[in-house]
Structure formats: C-alpha cells, structure tokens
Design a protein that fits this description.
Blueprint: H1 5-10, H2 27-32, H3 40-54, H4 64-76, H5 85-99
Bound molecules: 2-acetamido-2-deoxy-beta-D-glucopyranose.
Region (Disordered): 104-124
Signal peptide: 1-19
Keywords: Signal
C-alpha cells in the first residue's frame, strides 16, 4: 500500500456514515460466490466487501479492520491488478474520502493481498 496506516489511523477527521447506495448489505457475497475461495481475486473481493460492510459502522475511519481492508482493496482492485474497483467505488469513494483516505486504487502491478479482517460482512 502506498499510504501509511499509522498516518491515516491517527488522522482526526469528522466521521459520517456514508449512505449506502446499495440496499442489499450482502451484495458483495453475490460477487464472491463466483470466485474460488483462497485465491488472490477472492481475497481482493473479500477486503473490498468487508470494507463496504465496515464503512456502515460509527467511527469506522479509526477501525483497524476497516483501515486494513480498505488499504488492501485500494492495493488490489485497480485496472492494473484485479480490476474490481468498479463494483465497490460508489460506496467506497465516499466512505474512504470521508476519512481522508485515497479514493483511487493503486496503479501498476501490486503484491497480492491476504484475507480480510471480518467486519460485519456475511459471506456464504
Ligand atoms: C465506478 O466504476 C464504474 C466502472 O468502472 C464507472 O462506470 C463509474 O463511473 C465509477 N463510479 C464512480 C463514482 O467513480
């Protein structure tokens, strides 16, 4: 990841819960079902999806789980990598932007990410 977890974790920002544009809280699960578990693509969906779930919680900007999952999503979801940001951008751009985090996925080939920290998303 290209930004410091410590810096963003300590950033003092006003927290607001972004209105979720998608009413189905488990919609990323529909995407996950199409991926083989344990693959880097699965983990990328897992991190982005858990970031979506975590962003619905009060104070999520300072949540270790949200910061971890969001940073991994930014790392893995860009067009040079797994190219899945488009599934999550409408939720994660306002959610991450409200925390002062980057809202554009990393460009260039990035290392694969590992599993997300579970944060309220319910996967199959
Ligand atoms: C999200 O990504 C999709 C697909 O790339 C794109 O069409 C859409 O404009 C993006 N939305 C935002 C808010 O960036």
């Amino acid at each position: 990841m290209k930004f410091s977890i410590v810096a963003i974790a300590t950033a003092l920002v006003s927290v607001r819960v972004a209105a979720a544009p998608v009413d189905n809280a488990n919609w990323p699960a529909e995407l996950l079902k199409r991926q083989a578990p344990g693959t880097p693509l699965y983990y990328c969906h897992d991190n982005c999806g858990q970031a979506v779930a975590g962003s619905r919680k009060t104070g999520y900007c300072s949540s270790i789980a949200f910061i971890h999952n969001y940073a991994n999503c930014i790392q893995c979801s860009g067009p040079d990598n797994y190219n899945i940001w488009g599934y999550y951008n409408t939720t994660l751009i306002p959610a991450g932007g409200a925390c002062g985090f980057p809202t554009t996925p990393d460009s260039g080939t990035q290392p694969d990410v590992g599993p997300a920290i579970p944060d309220g998303g319910v996967w199959p």
